[in-house]
Write a structure and sequence with these properties.
about 575 residues; alpha/beta; 7-stranded mixed beta sheet; 4-stranded antiparallel beta sheet; 21 helices; 15 strands; binds adenosine-5'-triphosphate; Mitochondrial_chaperone_BCS1; P-loop containing nucleoside triphosphate hydrolase protein; AAA_lid_BCS1
Length: about 575
């Protein structure tokens, strides 16, 4: 049924409107309550955030304050020492922390194949006799704390930005900072002394040689590489009788007489020049002497690209007391005129004019005056032993050789009969060859000396087969090494005699080749001369090999060849100390 009912209909419309109004109101109310609720929520959120912010700030401030306090404490109640790589003390401390097993908490290691360069690797193997093929060296990048002698010590590594280079991703040069939590300076010096003592102990079987590695060149830390050589006994050096003893005695006496030098007003230093043909034992003598006297060697090559006067000065003055400063082949820095003429420039360079030619022969970085200053300048005293070696003493300037710079000149010569014999005996000791041991008088009478020779007899035969003053000890050593298990073959028959003939033939061929090279070089020099070129040392009116060198060089003497040295006055002279 359907009916029309207006009143209520209109009433209904009104009610609708009312309902609409109330729903709007409701919505408004709802919204506002949401907003209110949201407001409340956001109020509480902001509040909490604020609270968190305040709390966080407080914690951070507290943390910083605590850090500051710790830093204050560290500064006030600790000592920090810095050890720079290249300095010997750095070596001591690295060994010390390795022995203290500080590396145990290390997380970073440099791993390299074993070689003679110092690494102070950690020994992780429980069996110390087992030798691994690689070295594991902790980098100490993160600070490490350990206890020593009742004190807390912190060790940290820092890098020297100027000098460090990155090899295999690991910085090679750097510093070690050692912080001890005490105010007592004596603790630091006790620790350093202890470190040095251990270092000396560990190195007893070795000779320590400090070198300059140009790959890690750092002018403020010149000695940046350390090598260890097994100590060589003095008895293994075969020289003329008395020579080695007098050298060792001289050096020992020098080291003991510091007070005398001070009293006499003489700088406490001693210079030695070892000169003579290659392979006669000059370098071996210095290493054996360093081992016998417990001295470390600081060895420098003047031929290195990076070495100039100021670097030389820096290197020499950073050698500690009682160190050996060694310059090998000292003549190399100042080649004689003959050598300069042997190495003319390339023809292309000549074509471009004299100005370019003059520049092409750039002045050498080391000057003679620079070298002289280093040998007798500030920092060269303090108990330093200066050793230089050369194959060509005639090339050296008289200024370099004067007493005070070079106090002893020791001449080495090619092997004498006596040395050749001694070398054979050293090579074939009776302990290793008992079958050739000394025979008793009865045995000697009954034995057939030809069939059953003793080592002494073989040594005499060997020295008779080798002409005296013709071969260096190194050459003879090379020959004997080829027969190290066969003393009879080494001493007799085709062995020694055939070797002498082969060596002579090879030398003659080498000299022919050398003469050809020189002739070619002279021709090139003449061609240059024809185009107006004059070698700078000639233009420089008698200046030495270094263009910057204000001191005249005595390089006009003809360069001796080793043939002339063997047959001439050098060969005739016995090794002497002057
Ligand atoms: N007099 C010697 N006694 C023992 N060994 C020697 C002697 N001379 C040379 N040797 C041996 O020869 C090798 C080279 O010797 P060393 O380097 O000492 O000679 P050098 O005179 O310094 O040579 P260079 O002038 O070329 O530097 C070494 O292995 C060394 O053992």
């Amino acid at each position: 049924m359907y009916s029309t009912y207006y009143g209520p209909q209109s009433g209904l419309a009104g009610a609708d409107a009312t309902a609409q109004g109330s729903s709007w109101m409701t919505s408004f109310m709802g919204l506002s309550s949401i907003f209110a609720a949201l407001g409340l929520v956001s109020q509480s959120y902001v509040g909490s955030s604020l609270k968190l912010l305040v709390l966080g700030s407080l914690i951070e401030t507290g943390r910083r304050f605590f850090q500051w306090l710790i830093e204050r404490f560290r500064i006030q109640y600790s000592l920090t020492a810095q050890f720079n790589e290249g300095d010997p003390a750095h070596e001591w401390i690295v060994l010390f922390i390795t022995q203290e097993r500080v590396w145990k908490r290390s997380r970073e290691f440099v791993v390299t194949a074993k070689n003679s360069e110092r690494k102070w690797a950690v020994n992780t193997d429980s069996d110390p006799s087992r030798v691994g093929s690689a070295e594991y060296v902790p980098t100490y990048q993160a600070p490490q704390l350990f206890k020593w002698g009742g004190y807390w010590v912190e060790i940290k590594r820092g890098n020297d930005a100027r000098g460090s280079v990155v090899a295999n991703g690991v910085s090679q040069t750097g510093r070690i900072y050692l912080t001890i939590y005490t105010l007592d300076m004596t603790v630091l010096s006790r620790l350093v002394e202890e470190a040095k003592k251990r270092y000396v102990e560990v190195n007893r079987p070795h000779v320590v040689i400090h070198l300059i590695d140009s790959r890690r060149f750092n002018s403020s830390q010149p000695w940046n590489s350390v090598k260890h050589k097994i100590r060589r006994p003095l008895s293994s050096i075969i020289l003329l009788p008395g020579l080695l003893d007098s050298l060792v005695q001289d050096a020992e006496e020098f080291l003991k007489s510091e007070d005398w030098y001070i009293g006499a007003g003489i700088p406490h230093r001693r210079g030695y020049l070892l000169h003579g043909p290659p392979g006669t034992g000059k370098t071996s003598t210095i290493y054996a002497l360093a081992g016998a006297l417990n001295l470390e060697i600081y060895s420098l090559s003047l031929a290195s690209n990076n070495v100039d006067d100021s670097f030389l000065q820096q290197a020499a003055s950073s050698i500690p007391k009682n160190g050996i400063f060694l310059i090998e082949d000292i003549d190399c820095a100042f080649p004689s005129r003959a050598d300069e003429e042997d190495e003319p420039m390339e023809p292309m360079t000549v074509m471009r004019g004299n100005a370019m030619m003059a520049r092409a022969r750039a002045p050498r970085a080391i000057t003679l005056s620079g070298l002289l200053n280093v040998i007798d300048g500030v920092g060269s005293e303090e108990g330093k032993l200066f050793f230089a070696t050369t194959n060509y003493i005639d090339r050296l300037d008289a200024a370099l050789l004067r007493p005070g710079r070079i106090d002893r000149k020791i001449e080495y010569a090619l092997s004498t009969d006596e040395q050749t014999r001694a070398l054979f005996v050293k090579f074939f000791p009776e302990a290793r060859f008992p079958q050739f041991a000394h025979a008793t008088e009865t045995e000697k009478r009954n034995a057939d000396a030809e069939k059953n020779p003793t080592l002494t007899a073989l040594a005499t035969e060997f020295s008779a087969a080798i002409p005296p003053r013709e071969f260096s000890t190194a050459e003879l050593q090379g020959y004997l090494q080829g027969h190290k298990m066969h003393p009879v073959e080494a001493a007799r028959g085709a062995g020694a005699g055939a070797w002498v003939e082969a060596e002579r033939a090879e030398r003659a061929a080498r000299e022919v080749r050398e003469e050809e090279r020189r002739a070619k070089a002279r021709m090139r020099a003449q061609q240059m001369g024809g185009q107006g070129y004059m070698p700078p040392q000639m233009a420089g009116a008698g200046l030495g090999g270094s263009g910057m060198n204000p001191v005249p060089m005595s390089s006009t003497a003809a360069t001796p060849t080793f043939k002339s040295m063997r047959t001439g006055n050098v060969a005739a002279a016995a090794p002497v100390m002057t």
